[in-house]
Amino acid sequence: MINKIKEIAENIFEDIVQIRRQIHKNPELSFNEYETSAYIKSILKSWRIPYIEGIADTGIVVLLEGNNSALKTLALRADFDALPIIEENDVEYCSQNKGIMHACGHDVHTAALLGVVKILDTLSKEWEGSIKFIFQPAEEQYPGGAQQMIKEGVLENPKVQKMFGQHVFPELEVGKVGFCPGKYMASADEIQITISGSGGHAALPETYNNPIIAAAKLIISLEEHFLPCSNIPAVFAIGFVEANGYCNVIPDKVELKGTFRTIDEDYRCLAHIQMQEIANKIANKYNLDVHFKIYKGYPSLNNDEKLTSQAITCAKEYMGDENVVDLSLRMTAEDFAYYCNKVPSCFYRLGTANNAKGITHGLHTSQFDIDEDALRIGMGLMAYLAIKS
Fold first, then answer.
1. Which CATH class, in words, describes the domain spanning 189-296?
2. Cis ω on the peptide bond leading into residue 158 (within 30° of 0)?
3. N or C: which terminal CB in the chain sees fewer CB atoms within 10 Å?
4. 15 φ, ψ (degrees, to nearest 5)
5. Which of 33, 81, 173, 372 is labelled catalytic?
6. Per-residue pLDDT tens for 187-234?
7. Does the active-site annotation cover 139?
8. Catalytic site residue 266?
9. Could you state, in order of their start, the residue ranges of all structural domains in the chain?
């Protein structure tokens, strides 16, 4: 079976590369991926693969049935939205949509999953059960496409029992993949704080209540509170501060924006309470108003340990032991976590770097790119995981 999958992957490799490049050239932001969705459907039509459209607006689902189709149903997911980044790569497939770029590799995910469709359709008489292929919009922007697709029944009819997601990983050389059983990625909450005091002339401190002082104290207090929590991985960070005063003008208010992330959902709930309590203490101490708003984002991502262990074994069979590595916890977030909360799932990483070729830039950067050999590996391994799981 491995040899058959690799042979088909090799035969369709150039087509999948061109699909990836076409998607890369025409990126679209979350909740606006209409042309991308249309392009995916055009490929499926040309292959005479039936699909269901309009799930979460631009989402697409393909259902392939093998032998004994009622035996099990497994799902595979790819996302296809892009990011608001100006691409700086000098390649023929550079983004044609100014200010928008596939800087997180969702073009790769989608092209690879289309390759898996082709492989498994060709081999449909040689595997059992049913396989859903979920082409999902809007991973990059909350509330995310995963939530909406789940609400609209993507995991039902037939009911999905297991699920895989694959993501590019520029920290890993092409030809390798990585897995992490159990807790893997963090939740992500957005913090927005407004501190309201009373402004005035900087030379007359008796006439104003400076919100900048309170803002500085609040930032330091929150940072110091969460820094010692090394037993539970967590990150609190403020990335935006706006006061709109001047050298001799004290403003009426300060706006802060930041993020809170943790691996543990129970601690996440506790931390929300603690943040509010710290903010209230600052408000009382400085006799001003602190409006502290937490926008709860994606949950933490937990890979099913049994399924992930099985996937590691399969990956070693397909790629060799030396090409399968262990991954450490990451404080980045993913809306694939919503699927993990519904069915046993495995979210793993596909190596895309090539140091010799200078393909080393990280995700969400203007020069991110991949060694396209990763597409051959990505579609082949995912097809094998789907058949063997």
1. alpha beta
2. yes
3. N
4. -65, -40
5. 81
6. 999 999 999 999 999 999 999 999 999 999 999 999 999 886 668 899
7. yes
8. no
9. 2-185+302-388, 189-296
